[in-house]
Amino acid sequence: MTCLEEDKKGNFWVGTYGGGLNRLDKGKRGFAHFRHNARGDNSLADDRVNTIYEDKKGDLWLGTEAGLDLFNTKNNSFTLCPDLSSTSSPHAINIIQEDRQGNLWLGTKDDGLYLFDPAQRTITRFSHSDKDPASLGNNMIKTILVDKKGWLWIGSRSPTASGARTARDFAAFLARAGLTITSGLAIGIDAAAHAGALVGGGRTIAVLGSGLDQLYPPENTGLADRIVAQGGALLTEFPPGTAPLRSNFPRRNRLFSGLSLGTLVYATLLTLRFLRLANRFAAP
Question: Domains in the chain, please, with CATH?
Answer without folding.
Answer: 3-156 (2.130.10.10), 161-283 (3.40.50.450)
